[in-house]
Amino acid sequence: MNPVNYLYLAALLFTIGATGVLIRRNAIVVFMCVELMLNACNLAFVTFSRMHGNLDGQIIAFFTMVVAAAEVVVGLAIIVSLFRTRHSASVDDASLMKL
Amino acid sequence: MSFPLLTATAALPALGAVATAAVPARQRTAAKWLALLVSLATLALAIVVLVRFDPDGARYQLTESHSWIRDFGVRYELGVDGIAVALIGLTAVLMPFIVLAGWHDADPLETGSRRWRPTQGFFALILAVEAMVIISFEATDVFVFYIFFEAMLIPMYFLIGGFGDRAHSQGEEAASTQRSYAAVKFLLYNLAGGLIMLAAVIGLYVVAGSFSLQEIVQARADGSLTMATSTERWLFLGFFFAFAVKAPLWPLHTWLPNAMQESTAPVAVLITAVVDKVGTFAMLRFCLQLFPEASKWATPVILVLALISIVYGALLAVGQRDIKRLVAYASISHFGFIVMGIFAMTTQGQSGATLYMVNHGISTAALMLVAGFLISRRGSRLIADYGGVQKVAPVLAGTFLIGGLATLSLPGLAPFVSEFLVLVGTFSRYPVIGIIATVGIVLAALYTLVLYQRTMTGPVKPEVSAMPDLRVREVLVVAPLIVLLVFLGVYPKPLTSIVDPAVKQTMSDVQQKDPKPAVEAAK
Amino acid sequence: MENLIALLIAAPLLGAVVLLLGGRRLDAVGHWVGTLLSTASFVVGLVLFAGLLGKDAEHRTWTQHLWSWIPVGDFQADVTLRLDQLSMTFVLLITGVGSLIHLYSIGYMEHDERRRRFFGYLNLFLAAMLLLVLADNYLLLYVGWEGVGLASYLLIGFWQHKPSAATAAKKAFLVNRVGDVGLSIAIMLMFTTFGTFAFGPVLEHAGDASEGRLTAIGLMLLLAACGKSAQVPLQSWLGDAMEGPTPVSALIHAATMVTAGVYLIVRSAAIFNGAPDAQLVVTVVGGVTLLFGAIVGCAKDDIKKALAGSTMSQIGYMVLAAGLGPIGYVFAIMHLVTHGFFKAGLFLGAGSVMHGMNDEVDMRKYGGLRKYMPITFVTFGLGYLAIIGFPGLSGFFSKDKIIEAAFAKGGAEGWILGGVALLGAAITAFYMTRVMLMTFFGEPRWKNQPTKSPEAPSAEPAAEHQGAHGEPHPHESPRTMTIPMIVLAVGSVAGGAFFDVGDRFLHWLEPVTGHSEGHSPLSALTVTGATMVCLVLGVGLAWAQYGRKPVPAHAPRGSVLTRAARRDLYQDDFNHVVLVRGGEHLTRSLVYVDHTLVDGVVNGSAAGFGGLSGRLRRVQNGFARSYAVSMFGGAALLVAATLLMRAV
């Protein structure tokens, strides 16, 4: 199977994720969309690894997974504490930092 | 290795500033005495510099040179010529009087607070300015000069913004707003100038590969360093802009009236008599020596700007209602004379300009400090609030008149010598500009005498009828300044003999000769 | 002997320093200290004079080098004093008349609490004036020149609590400053022309310079002279200067300082000799001022202002004579000296009258005073006869010579100048007779009326101590005041004859100024005859108007010319409208421009940046998603840019 198709898939996934980040208000959904984008990247990396015949892409994919895991921990904690204080998971409500 | 005299002259007030700042909150008087002692000790060191300096010796004397930032060729290089010695002398002489005149200017309004130490801060800042001004006069490395030229702004900013006249007519809050406006304006103007200069300093390094004034001048003289005409002009403009802001030259002058108006009289003297002199001094030392060709190229425009400053400053002084603003505009007019003398490119003009820097410092100090004493008595800066002071406080009025007469360059007082030299020096090369500049003489008489008439003569106003005459401390401030004014007016030779050789050197750096008289036989 | 020259200046200078810094403890003796030191200077002057007389006419120039003043490159100004016949003449006049007026002031200022300071200023004036005439170069002369200006400023404004005095003092200084600009430009021109401004080399080599340069220098010197000597167009300050105490008017504004302009022109004779155009302008200025002052003097009711007009007019004579060149220099100085005597005497007489009349200055409130003040009457009368040129008295000799010299100029010029001088003599006779008649003759007009009108405060506040209101009691002045008047009257009577017999004065001064006889189209006798006719005409007219019929106590409306003359021929009004108003508008609009335009540009750019950052701030709206959009947009742009670069 032509590996370029995987790249198309990765691009599609990334676009879906990005659109989700931009248009959804629910913090959890935004968060999941970010994950989707990360995984799209992972897919691209692995594909490149396969196409070029070396392991660099796969190694970076592992790094990304580790970072994503750490990010999920911190991010979810923030979202939960936000929800506790404001009883809402909408990202638009949290605009206190504006000037 | 010999004793680093120049470093010591600058380091002493710097250390004094730290020590003054460290004096405990309760010991305010001790801080004042410490500041006074340090300024007197600095004066003693300056006198040693003056004595050790040989007018007919090498170009730069008492030199010190140490490697500092090796990667960029920055060296800690100090050295003085006659012009620098004269200005260091001026700074060191004025400082004790500034400290003494500001004795009560920074007393806290309510006592008791343990952390609040304005008095210590005030005097420490003044000493810090002194240290930086002195080292700016000494530096022969462009980078070292630049650092202190800019660093001076920090203490000055706090001095202008933090301390003002007591008993402001519009209430303390309005006064504080105006003060911070003036301080910010001062800072922004000078920072803008400084930034442009920084670019030029870096440019100079790129072109010349060195920051050392002597090395660059030497390299240009023996042809091992050539600059493209346009490069030289751009670099010159970068330097000149910063100095023209500091000096200040029309139309970059508007920060000065605000700054002088809002600060206390001693700080106003510090600005106009000491700090601003760094600007005109640097024109003479850096602009002319580093960029002789560009200086000649820019001369016509600069002379016209100087001429505008002279007439414009004097005319605006006539129209002022505020005593301190009036003195500020008068100073702008005088700075026009100084710049004109520098760029007239004659021996008389440049010697006159250097003398002018010294004499203007002393005369403005005398006038402004007496004005400060007057203002502190009545609590108003407005000319219209005074009248008939002469009858109530004759000594105050008399010293004020002498300060005013010095400002209008009365023959017999020091400023006349320098003003006439500048005029003659300009006239011998540019007759028309010289003649127009004499308008400044008439206008100077106008604003001084109108000020004296409105404040000192006429019927005694009820508000001033109980005004006390000058106190002993105040007489101690003014009397020596007046003695200096008379002495340097009658016998300026000690000063001219120091300045002359340096001016001749500068003249040969820019490859200029004095014009010859039409009838040579008469000489 | 040369080393005594500095002592001439040092004595009064010491007096000024001691009296001004000495403080209250010197109040009791200050006036005597001042008088003593001024007299000491006079004695030194006499000693030097004797020394000079003992030398040949050619060797009567002494110089004393004191110290090098401003040495900068080629610019060498030294403090060197020069005593020759010309400066000697002035030294004797200044110290002699000066000492007499010091003596007079002791009585005149007796009731003034600031008498010590007054004497300090007087001594300062003497020192500056002596420096002016003794300087050996133009720059040092300039120091004296402005020094007398300062002393004059301080003395005119001596009663500073009166706004009118303070204003008059300021005006005098300012108008003089305009003249001083002329002097400083002249010095600069000399420096660029000759490379020096010392008298010796400049005057010696004046002939080598081009006529254009000499004319320029001459005109600038004339401008300076106009300021100091109150010549048209810079004459306006002299009338106001009468706000000062009367001894000051006598010494500074009649006898000495105002004649400094004449000194300057005569001293610079070599320059003017090479610049005929400049000389012509000098004579024109002299002639115009001569008539101007005389006309103004005719209309003034204030006795001091009438005399001030007369001073202006007499100095006009001197300037005219100085403009005539070598035929006139000596006579200019001769008239200057005799004028010093009689005009000082007249002013002191006026002061004495005011002293006895509760400081009333309006002549319409005098009348018949000869019975009450006999000594004043006689001395004033002799001064009067001298100034109108009564045969045998000093004014007759000196003025006659000037009129002769004016005719001797030759050509149409000579006729015009001579005619003007003759006309001036007639007007002089008219206005002086008027003063004389209104003051000392006729009915007393001061009886049954308080002398002070409340809206016109007295010129001399010393009156406050003498019961200002109520009828004045005219009385003769104390002896310290009458003695100087008597001495000056003797000088006014005998001075002219003493100088003229055997051409003494001419021979004395000729080595310095040079002299040549002109070719007069009229004989000396004709000129004298014409002068006498003018004199009789003037006196007769004045008698017809003020002697035959009583003088009204309130000024009549008068003709157009009278009204104009009362207002100084509207010259002050012109100054006021054009210079003062115009200047006020200019400065006011400049203050506005500075605030709105120069400062406005800077403040405007600051406001612009502020506004821009205000706009930009709105982008930071706090919505996380909008930040995300900008991030994606930015990333997309970057990618697009990269692709584009690749493609190119």
UniProtKB/TrEMBL annotation, chain A:
First-level EC class: translocase
EC numbers: 7.1.1.-
MF (Gene Ontology): NADH dehydrogenase (quinone) (non-electrogenic) activity; quinone binding
Transmembrane segments: 6-23, 28-48, 60-83
Gene3D superfamilies: 1.10.287.3510
Protein localization: Cell membrane; Membrane
InterPro entries per UniProt: NADH_UbQ_OxRdtase_chain4L/K, NUOK/Mnh_C1-like
Topological type in the membrane: Multi-pass membrane protein
Keyword annotations from UniProtKB, A to Z: Cell membrane, Membrane, NAD, Oxidoreductase, Quinone, Translocase, Transmembrane, Transmembrane helix, Transport
UniProt keyword Mitochondrion present: no
Domain of life: Bacteria
GO cellular component assignments: NADH dehydrogenase complex; plasma membrane
Primary location group: membrane
Pfam families: Oxidored_q2
Gene Ontology biological-process entries: ATP synthesis coupled electron transport
Assembly: NDH-1 is composed of 14 different subunits. Subunits NuoA, H, J, K, L, M, N constitute the membrane sector of the complex.
Function, in words: NDH-1 shuttles electrons from NADH, via FMN and iron-sulfur (Fe-S) centers, to quinones in the respiratory chain. The immediate electron acceptor for the enzyme in this species is believed to be a menaquinone. Couples the redox reaction to proton translocation (for every two electrons transferred, four hydrogen ions are translocated across the cytoplasmic membrane), and thus conserves the redox energy in a proton gradient.
Membership in a protein family: Belongs to the complex I subunit 4L family.
Record-linked PANTHER family: NADH DEHYDROGENASE SUBUNIT 4L-RELATED, NADH-UBIQUINONE OXIDOREDUCTASE SUBUNIT ND4L
The protein, known as: NADH-quinone oxidoreductase subunit K
TrEMBL record, chain B:
Species of the source: Streptomyces griseoluteus
Taxonomic superkingdom: Bacteria
MF terms (GO), sorted A to Z: NADH dehydrogenase (ubiquinone) activity; NADH dehydrogenase activity; ubiquinone binding
Similarity field: Belongs to the complex I subunit 4 family.
PANTHER family: NADH-UBIQUINONE OXIDOREDUCTASE CHAIN 4
NADH:quinone oxidoreductase/Mrp antiporter transmembrane domain span: 139-443
EC number: 1.6.5.11
Cross-referenced InterPro entries: NADH_Q_OxRdtase_chainM/4, NADH_UbQ_OxRdtase, ND/Mrp_TM
Secretion signal span: 1-19
Subcellular location per the Swiss-Prot or TrEMBL entry: Endomembrane system; Membrane
Keywords: Membrane, Oxidoreductase, Signal, Transmembrane, Transmembrane helix
Protein name listed in UniProt: NADH-quinone oxidoreductase subunit M
Transmembrane parts of this sequence: 31-51, 78-103, 123-149, 186-208, 234-255, 297-319, 326-347, 353-375, 395-418, 430-452, 472-491
UniProtKB/TrEMBL annotation, chain C:
Highest taxon above the source species: Bacteria
Domain NADH:quinone oxidoreductase/Mrp antiporter transmembrane, residue spans: 135-419
Lineage: Bacteria, Bacillati, Actinomycetota, Actinomycetes, Kitasatosporales
Presence of keyword Membrane: yes
Major location (coarse): membrane
Native organism: Streptomyces griseoluteus
InterPro entries linked: NADHpl_OxRdtase_5_subgr, ND/Mrp_TM, NU5C-like, Proton_antipo_N
Residue stretches spanning the membrane: 6-22, 29-53, 86-106, 118-135, 181-202, 214-234, 246-266, 278-299, 372-394, 414-437, 483-502, 522-544, 627-645
UniProt domain NADH-Ubiquinone oxidoreductase (complex I) chain 5 N-terminal: residue ranges: 69-119
Protein name as it appears in the record: NADH-quinone oxidoreductase subunit L
Biased composition (Basic and acidic residues): 462-477
Keyword Membrane: yes
Molecular functions per Gene Ontology: NADH dehydrogenase (ubiquinone) activity; NADH dehydrogenase activity
GO cellular component: endomembrane system; membrane
Keywords: Membrane, Transmembrane, Transmembrane helix
Membrane topology: Multi-pass membrane protein
